[in-house]
TrEMBL record:
Top-level taxon of origin: Eukaryota
Sequence intervals crossing the membrane: 448-476
Domain Bulb-type lectin: 24-147
EC number: 2.7.11.1
Membrane topology: Single-pass membrane protein
Species annotation: Xanthoceras sorbifolium
Boundaries of every Protein kinase domain copy: 509-783
UniProt-recorded name of the protein: Receptor-like serine/threonine-protein kinase
Localization of this protein: Membrane
Length: 800
């Protein structure tokens, strides 16, 4: 093994020193590569392509692949072991039996053997076309990556009858996905797969080039060297892939054609030597409209079950209807599930179904299949009632006289611009649901905006504590004092927009619709008229302390440079006269507090996901953004949920603006009762560990679905969540903490571990608390969690 590694590193050294040296083309028996870093590869003579290991998403898993090696994206065009990524330390070796990929334990992960198998392999080469070949004694190739394609074909590649391509599961997951291309029986066909089995459903595209007369039937599927793609029949005639338009191939372009993970077969091009235009663009796609191409009683359609498809820039995009959330938020093609209890009402009550459910209109979307009942003549009211009182009914379609009822799962959903029929959704009253806004033609079923950018009705500390706290200043670590003259340029290198006040006044209809109030000011809903009707949340800041005014932009630029999917994005600001306004993305599902303390309580796994998302956002604020930011006021009211219920932290980076040494008022105290760390009350510097403390408290709230302080409990220890949790934890009564919630008690390992993590976070001494990064790793299960000590002898007991 050691010699192999030595040989491979020697080869690698030669390659990296002389990347264009042509001898690179011939790979001799015994050569090997190991999965240790990205550079472990063999190059084609021109250096255009590389064959070797690619690290998957910064994990310890590696993919054996071929990629375009001269473009920044290093686009992968072939891969070997997508279903079975190789762990770090795996080796690939060229033997007389072929290419063999072994894991560090010596077990075979993948192999490529010569055909016929009796031939001994003598060498291998990566050709300049991107074809990796094995040769035997003769000049014929005994194995070619071009004959064993994955999701992509390249110029100069020809597929014989019986070939297939399979899509990836997602853009970053190379497992076999939900679509396949088959060149069988004379035609190129695209089929949905009954994932995760490999059973095929009916095709959604066919070149229709098969014929009973075999000489008129397709025989080769050709991507010719200059970049054209067509079918050649047995009699030599060519057939175009209808309705593809003909293109004029150019020599200054790279080409590839890929069956993408969304099921669209796309021919892409990339400018070879352009410093500016550095991305692939789609030249031609099949089918033209993916959303309507699949139409079948069985299977989900292009998007997963219960979702609907719309075309955006030619590609299908999947969304959930109101009341539904993505099964896997990282893969929107996996469908949606209802986020409310269904059927005949609650398990505990026998209330009238009309009280439990309501109908919401959700128009411009069609689920054309799967009706189980058709009632007529009916009026809309009867149609709605019929669905509400029918346990099986999830949706009714009403067209003026007819009422079709459907049950779940819904399939083949697609967006429609026009359509007379109304889609009537049955949702449970009071449950959280996504915004009806954008797709709803009629506003009858107008959504209740569950609030957004709420800062919560914070309760502030009493004056005694104020004095104690008044020395404490929330600091930005490593923050550089920027002079006035640099400020504007620091703003301009963020993507933030400078709005004028009039524009914001128009967008918010003169600050009409209030979303919430908090320590920084009032938040209003608005819609930007320009551009694509983006909903925004506009926060008018209260008067800033005098000496903070000139820091406004400096601070903003720090916030503007943060970019993370678990932070609410700041779009821009307005700094005009007395007006200081911040413009944020709009979060349609309100605050975590609304979700958490509602009845019924949100799903356990949704809460688990949200906890992880908040932790990620905090890790980013503390450790990953340019200027580390301490939030100082982490609580459920400051966590907002977008339309997919993805958690985003809001109001970060503002605490400094409100702190002033001269004029302290109540509202300038950062932190909210029940969430603040004990060091706020001591004369010690405040560090990022204050956020860890607040996160710990909030994690307990998320686990238990109750507020950190609940005065209605007589028992004082019960009233304070942190005390109560520690008591229950010591007594081993985890079931009490989650109120016997089924999903949580079934997930008892996580429950137990997360409680321990939360208790670590709320330790009195900041240095006992783990850093957010470590919290994250413990939550994800990468680090073991030791037994936590009792959090504190000191208790924040504040009277109102
Ligand atoms: C590589 O092998 C081919 C035959 O497969 C041979 O023609 C060529 O000369 C070899 N190139 C080098 C640089 O050894
Ligand atoms: C390896 O490449 C992947 C992308 O292909 C990248 O995400 C990763 O950071 C790279 N790792 C190293 C060590 O360069
Ligand atoms: C990989 O290649 C890059 C340059 O291409 C080099 O900077 C880096 O040190 C190499 N990494 C290893 C582990 O050899
Ligand atoms: C890639 O890694 C990031 C962070 O490590 C993670 O959030 C993301 O889900 C990963 N993606 C996939 C497809 O595994
Ligand atoms: C290669 O061919 C020669 C002559 O045809 C034969 O003697 C030799 O055994 C072959 N070697 C292999 C490895 O097949
Ligand atoms: C890809 O997705 C499959 C199915 O969800 C999953 O089992 C596998 O772990 C994923 N692979 C990677 C590398 O994330
Ligand atoms: C092949 O195509 C011909 C002509 O369209 C058709 O009649 C025949 O049933 C097909 N065979 C298979 C196995 O699909
Ligand atoms: C098949 O098609 C060829 C033309 O491509 C024609 O010459 C031949 O007669 C046809 N055979 C039959 C049986 O129709
Ligand atoms: C590729 O196909 C196009 C159109 O069929 C043709 O004009 C061109 O000459 C072909 N190029 C090569 C290299 O065969
Ligand atoms: C790159 O250039 C191509 C062709 O000139 C054009 O179609 C494409 O839109 C350009 N892409 C970008 C990002 O400018």
């Amino acid at each position: 093994m050691a010699t192999l590694a030595a040989v491979s590193s020697l080869i690698f050294l030669c390659l990296s020193l002389l990347p264009y040296y042509s001898s690179a083309a011939n790979i001799t028996l015994g050569s090997s590569l190991s999965a240790t870093n990205n550079n472990s590869s063999w190059l084609s003579p021109s250096g255009e392509f590389a064959f070797g290991f690619r690290q998957l998403n910064n994990s310890d898993l590696f993919l054996l692949a071929i990629w375009f090696n001269k473009i920044p994206q290093r686009t992968i065009v072939w891969h070997a072991n997508g279903d079975n990524p190789a762990p770090r330390g795996s080796t690939l070796e060229l033997t007389t039996n072929g290419l063999v990929l072994n894991n560090p334990g010596g077990r075979m992960v993948w192999y490529a053997s010569p055909s016929p198998a009796t031939i001994a392999v003598t060498k291998a080469a990566l050709l300049d076309t991107g074809n990796f070949v094995l040769t035997g004694n003769g000049s014929n190739f005994v194995w070619e990556s071009f004959k064993n394609p994955t999701d992509t074909i390249l110029p100069d590649q020809t597929l014989d009858l019986g070939s297939m391509l399979f899509s990836k599961l997602t853009e970053t997951n190379f497992s076999k996905g939900r679509f396949e291309l088959h060149f069988d029986n004379g035609s190129v066909q695209l089929n949905p797969v009954a994932w995760p089995s490999r059973s095929l459903y009916n095709w959604y595209y066919s070149s229709e080039t098969s014929s009973i007369n075999s000489s008129e039937s397709g025989n080769k599927f050709v991507f010719n060297a200059s970049g054209n793609i067509y079918i050649v029949k047995t009699n030599g005639e060519t057939a175009q892939l209808f309705p593809w338009v003909t293109i004029t191939p150019r020599v200054d372009l790279y080409y590839r054609a890929t069956l993408d993970s969304d099921g669209v077969f796309t021919q892409y091009a990339f400018l070879k030597n352009s410093p500016t235009n550095q991305s692939w663009w789609a030249l031609r796609i099949l089918p033209g409209n993916m959303c309507t191409a699949i139409f079948s009683d069985i299977g989900s359609g292009p998007c997963g079950f219960n979702s609907y498809c719309s075309i955006q820039n030619g590609r299908p995009s999947c969304d959930c209807p109101p009341g539904f959330v993505f099964v896997d938020p990282n893969n929107r093609f996996m469908g949606c599930r209802p986020n409310f209890r269904q059927g005949c009402g609650g398990d505990d009550d026998s209330r009238d179904l009309g009280e439990l459910y309501e109908i919401r209109e959700f128009n411009n979307v069609d689920w054309p299949l799967g009706d189980y009942e058709k009632l007529q003549p009916y009026n809309q009211k009867d149609c709605e009632q019929s669905c509400i009182y029918d346990c099986s009914c999830a949706v009714a379609i009403y067209d003026g006289t007819r009422c079709w009822k459907k049950r779940l799962p819904l399939s083949n959903g697609r967006y429609r611009d026009t359509g007379f029929s109304k889609v009537l959704f049955k949702v449970r009253k009071g449950d959280s649901f996504s915004d009806f806004g954008d797709n709803s033609g009629s506003r009858r079923g107008r959504p209740i905006l569950l609030g957004a950018l709420l800062l919560g009705g914070s309760v502030f500390f009493n004056v005694v504590l104020l004095v104690a706290v008044s020395i404490v200043v929330c600091v930005w670590h490593h923050k550089k004092e920027a002079g006035n003259n640099v400020q504007d340029s620091s703003i301009s290198d963020t993507n933030m927009r400078c709005f004028n006040y009039k524009e914001l006044e128009e967008a918010t209809d003169a600050f009409k619709e209030e979303l919430g109030r908090g320590s920084f000011g009032i938040v209003y809903k608005g819609v930007l008229r320009s551009g694509s009707r983006n909903a925004i949340a506009v926060k008018k800041l209260d008067k800033l302390a005098q000496e903070r005014e000139r820091e406004f932009k400096t601070e903003l630029s720090a916030i503007g440079r943060t970019h993370h999917k678990n932070l609410v994005q700041l779009h821009g600001f307005c700094d005009e006269g007395v007006h200081r306004v911040l413009v944020y993305e709009f979060m349609s599902n309100g605050t975590l507090a609304n979700l958490l303390f509602a009845i019924p309580k949100p799903d356990w796994y949704l809460r688990v996901r949200i906890s992880l998302e908040i932790a990620k956002g905090l890790v980013y604020l503390h450790e990953e953004c340019n200027v580390p930011i301490i939030h100082c006021d982490i609580k459920p009211q400051n966590i907002l949920l977008d339309q997919y219920l993805i958690a985003k932290i809001s109001d970060f980076g503002l605490s400094k603006l409100l702190l002033s040494n001269q004029s302290r008022t109540r509202t300038m105290i950062r932190g909210t009762r029940g969430y603040v760390a004990p060091e706020w009350f001591k004369n010690v510097p405040v560090t990022a560990k204050v956020d860890v403390y607040s996160f710990g408290v909030m994690l307990l709230e998320i686990i238990c679905c109750r507020r950190s302080v609940e005065m209605e409990f007589e028992d004082e220890r019960r009233a304070i969540l942190t005390d109560w949790v520690y008591d229950c934890y010591i007594e081993g009564r985890l079931d009490v903490l989650v109120d016997n919630e089924e999903a949580a008690t079934a997930d008892v390992d996580r429950l137990h571990k997360w409680l321990m993590i939360a208790i670590w976070c709320i330790q009195e001494d900041p240095s006992d608390r783990p850093a957010m990064k470590m919290v994250m790793q413990m939550l994800e299960g990468f680090l073991d969690v030791p037994q936590p000590p009792c959090p504190s002898s000191f208790r924040v007991s504040v009277e109102y």
